[in-house]
Amino acid sequence: MGKLYVAGYGPGAVGMMTADFRACADACDIIVGYSGYIDALRPLYPGKQFFDTPMKQETDRCLAALKLAAEGETVCVVCSGDSGVYGMAGLVYELSPDFPGVEITVIPGITAACSGAAVLGAPIGHDFAVISLSDLLTDWALIEKRLCAAAMGDFCVCLYNPSSHKRADYLQKACDILLEEKSPETVCGIVRNIGRDGEAAHILTLAQLRDTRVDMFTTVFIGNTNTKIIDGKMVTPRGYRGV
Amino acid sequence: MGKLYVAGYGPGAVGMMTADFRACADACDIIVGYSGYIDALRPLYPGKQFFDTPMKQETDRCLAALKLAAEGETVCVVCSGDSGVYGMAGLVYELSPDFPGVEITVIPGITAACSGAAVLGAPIGHDFAVISLSDLLTDWALIEKRLCAAAMGDFCVCLYNPSSHKRADYLQKACDILLEEKSPETVCGIVRNIGRDGEAAHILTLAQLRDTRVDMFTTVFIGNTNTKIIDGKMVTPRGYRGV
Question: The sheet that has A233-235: what strands, in order across it?
Fold first, then answer.
């Protein structure tokens, strides 16, 4: 019986991969993942066996990985960011009861809330909420409820999957909900292509964010009441200097 | 004029450090940090110059680091976990206007929400809120408000600093607030000494968590409505298999 690792490699830059991720990808028999991620990793692991599937085939991909592990292979299911944050770790565990004896290990990675924050400055320096705007797997009503709750709690908010071709106005809808509680002057930040070629960050107000188009390669940060701009960086104080 | 890096090394295990963290700590002239963190790093960097201060001297420590950088040194301020999540990144930026010209770079690390989650299974596989229960720098009323909002939004919740000698009953108070919205049967998990000697994880209900004593080396996870236990792991489905 083999082993299955579910491992996040962070935003993509080799420097933001952990030693455990590298060791795991080095040592495994086969790396399984979404085609886009595999294309990014292939140059790092010449000669390695890869198994990739397109987007929206997550269940098939994880089943294939579990099957290979049950057959005795050591398998590494790779995710960008952290495999436990909107990644494959949960799905692998959900499917695992049909593959008794496969030993599953989750290798954490740098999630976009942390890697994007580092580019902007320190936007999540106090309590924060992470919300995905994708309604592929979640009712939009629940997403709205969470946006509303996060705004009521004056959380910093980090939005994953803020947009796609089919959901071009979702960020605008999200901002409208946040604007019911948060000031239009709330400091916000967006980061595109974190840690990859073409990385770009931009700081703006919540009112401006509402009218900004972003794509699916972008992570969005909305500050709390105390978030400020210091020398071009987005900073949410923890309180060391008073408020 | 020197450079200042604010870098998170993750939970402590060398395997969960990123290549960027290692390169930054290797290359800098001096590593600055809390004494407990410096003691953990010293064996990795023999011959390196260190500057450490005790807890609650965060401002002095960051001022010293900025002063050294302004004098031309390349300085690495180290934090456990991620330097942007209750770490020193925000404070360094807040203090930086008095040190014009010092170039500040934040190096992200694996925060306890991610490293602890990996030990438990996949507890934050859907939208989550991160809340610190420490009221050293934050009014307890605001912490209560955020707990209440997180429960109303059916977020998974990750609690940092859940307890200390002076705040022995804070986790109980937090659970009582969460129990106003969340079921007493909600799946929860606690992880102590993540990635270090004596790592221990435990899964329990929210009702049981309320009557459990934890210490400051523990990170606490509270599930959402759909969080379940699968073969001893705490798993919050994203929705691939339906709810």
Answer: A121-122, A233-235, A228-230
